[in-house]
Amino acid sequence: MRKPHFPKASIGAYLIAIALAIALPILAFVALLLVQLENNERDVLKGDTVQDAQALSRVIDRQLQDMATTLRLLSSSPELERNDIATFFARTETVLRTDSLFVLLMEKDGQLRLNTRWPLGKPLGKTGNIAALQSALNSGRIEASDVFMGPNARRWVYNVTLPLEHSPAGAALAVTQDADELAKLVTTQALPPGWSAAVVDKSGHVVAAGGPTTLAPGDTFNKDILPKLIASSGVYQDEKTLPNAVLGYAQISGWSWKAVVWGPIASAQQSLMSTWRFLIYGGVTLLLIALIAVYALARQVRTTIQSIADMADRMGRGEIVSPVDTSVIEANQVAIALSNASFDRSVTEDRLHFVMHELVHRTKNLLALAQAMTRQLARQTDSVDTFQRAVADRLEGLARSIEVLTSEQWSGVSLRRVIDIHLATFLQGPQQLDVLGNDFLLKPEAVQNLGLILHELATNSVKYGALSAPEGKITIEWTNEVTETGTMIRFVWSETGGPTVKPPSVTGFGTTVTKTHAAASFSGHVEVNFRPAGLVWILTAPRNMMERQRT
């Protein structure tokens, strides 16, 4: 017996396992798709972060370019050529028309000759960022300084400086602005929630910042990150330095500053996180609903199977069971099959009891017949060998009847078949037998008794009658006669073509069978006519003593 591949478990456990086997791979596949989507989103996020940094760099670049343009306009004013500081001061206020930008006029040593932040004539010191001045003078082009603390304004500022060549008014002209004013341009409205942006100068200090960051102008940006921002633009990501965050940067074209944006990945992927939460909550909810539905289904199936098992148990005890009605079509079919089987089993058992009873009855009859036959043969034979042959011959004929009855399950055998079976071994050819009459089905008792009679008639014919000569012939014919008491059958055995027949001087077992036993078995009358031309044997009996009625 093959061992089962799966452990023994209830139908509910298997149904739940089936539900999990279906649901979990689907959820796992969806989760895999979301992981892939998350990776794609991160790639998109990196690209968006760089684009946001580049957008900020362009905004700052426009501001610096505007300041450079202002410087170029102011540097060409004739007042500087005439070293007319008062007129230049008035002209500058007209050009700027703003309170956020201020113009500085500086000597090579950084001494301020003019600062539009303060009234003309107020004593001014040196610029607070001599290094930026010297760098612009050395390069000969416009440069933006690092952020620094203004000595006069006492706030964080930055300068855009333009060197003046051969000007009697001074060595350089600069536009200065408070870092807080520049911070107004560092907006984070287009960035994901929780993200920050900053402008970092050449030395790594924050010029302006926006968003939730705690960085302020003049603060040093992360020293672990800045050395790695070497490309013109790009993305920086490091779980140790920026856990669960990403940073994008872009060099401000033509200037020494960088635009930087950064923030948590989760907030940038808020929609994806919402999808994850929906998947988790929805998946768990659907899985619970599926398990509840499977549990209810399992209870229904278990109840159905228990009903079928109860039917089978009752059937095993020999009861006739009626089919149960369930919600499972296949179970109903099994229930009907069990009900039919229980009925068939009951019928079979009843039939078996009947057959056993009949077998006992027939066995008693056969034993009585065999006993009577042996006693009679014993009285009529003078040696053991003769007795043995006579008994064996009669038992063989009886065995033929029993064999054919067994093949038909003792339900009866046709008359013609009984005749053929018992005479087949006696005939020298088929021409020696004629059978006339409408065939019908014999009762089991009639099969045995008529078979014994035919065997005796054939045995006698072989010894003394028509079958002892090749030209001899047997004719068996039966007809119906309707009388007042019912339908009678007239069964005739007649012989022709054999030796001259003489009546026997003594009667033996054969005579007893063909006359006494035949008449008694069929409740009829037997006539035997020993005509010289051939024996004629006639049985007249009620047809119902021979015929088996069909049901």
TrEMBL record:
It comes from the Bacteria. Residues 358-439 form the Signal transduction histidine kinase HWE region domain. It is an enzyme of class 2 (transferase). The keyword ATP-binding applies. It catalyses: ATP + protein L-histidine = ADP + protein N-phospho-L-histidine. GO terms for molecular function: ATP binding; protein histidine kinase activity. Its EC number is 2.7.13.3. Keywords: ATP-binding, Kinase, Membrane, Nucleotide-binding, Phosphoprotein, Transferase, Transmembrane, Transmembrane helix. The chain crosses the membrane at residues 12-35, 278-298. It holds the Pfam family HWE_HK. This is histidine kinase. It comes from Rhizobium tropici.
